[in-house]
Specification:
heterodimer, A: alpha+beta, ten-stranded mixed beta sheet, 4 helices, 34% strand, B: mainly alpha, 73% helix, 0% strand
Amino acid sequence: MNDSNMNDSNMNDSNMNASNMNDSNEPNHSPADNLLLAELADAVPTPPMPATLRAACLDLLTWRTIDAELAELLESSMLTGVRSDDTDHLTFEAKSARGEDDPTRIELSLGDRHGMVVGQITPPAAGDVTLQTGSGLTAASVDEAGRFTIPTSLRGMFRLRIELIGRRPLITSWTLA
Amino acid sequence: MTAVEARNEQGETIAAALGGCQAAWAVLVDRFNPKLWGVAWSHRLDEATANDVIQIAWMRFLERGHTLRDPDALGPWLATIVRNEARRLLERQRRNSPSDYEWDNLADDDPDDPFAVLIDGERRVAVRNAFKRLGEPCRELLQLLTVDPALSYAEVAAVLDKPIGSIGATRQRCIARLRQLLDHSVYQDDGDGLL
């Protein structure tokens, strides 16, 4: 390991050229620039990572099982700036659930004030929906018009698992509310 | 390790992690978390939000990682998710409390505060003040370039949504501008023209 590291650094010392352009560690920069950047790193430091982050990330591996079609976040009122009140609107779409031309869409309204998650699935079908958050699961039913209401206010990570009669189960991408 | 060896190693580690190997998963988390933390910080997210955003990036990897063809694309891909989610949440925070999340309000020093100079040293305060006067694009780039371990240019380019080939020249230009502001501050009072 030491050998190869030494070889690498020797090469970089004697061979500072454009071949290293893709490597941010040793591109062809002036020592004065590198020095000022180091001063900046010292004057405006990135704070240390919180100790809990690593463990939280390591735990995520247990969530990896997907036995359902993934519905991805298509748009968000947080991004588009479209808003009527304090409610955030999210739209998820599962492209392959019913074929490319007829995707299943899940529209969600996350109301701050009323503590409700209201959803609409199109094309509609009845079934069950389960909200998964870091703190647990909440189930609700989907009516024949594809509507559902989950009496909870969302903050943080969540996903929905949706099982509709006669269709493959859907799961929304993990999203931050 | 050569670039090819590193790429192969990362490909194997990704496959093992997606297959449920906890050790491989830990390797990836430890490899990229400091960089992702740096990207989150460059957006001035608070700690709890930065935590959430980084976890979301990993969740998406677990959902979609099998579609990644190029193992080298993992870093830029994760960094892009952190950036997108950071922007989305910042937009909402600004909406809910318009003044709380401006960069300048989060900066912890007053340019005229003599105690900041005492504690931090004149040079550091001068560098910080010069940095604050840079335009936002330069601030974002330079902040990303100070992350340790360093982000690859591909990762920086992904976060900034700029071509890889432009990063080196922009780095040079932004550092020159920072130096100019710094030199300028020697002859002028720090407080934005207040003498």
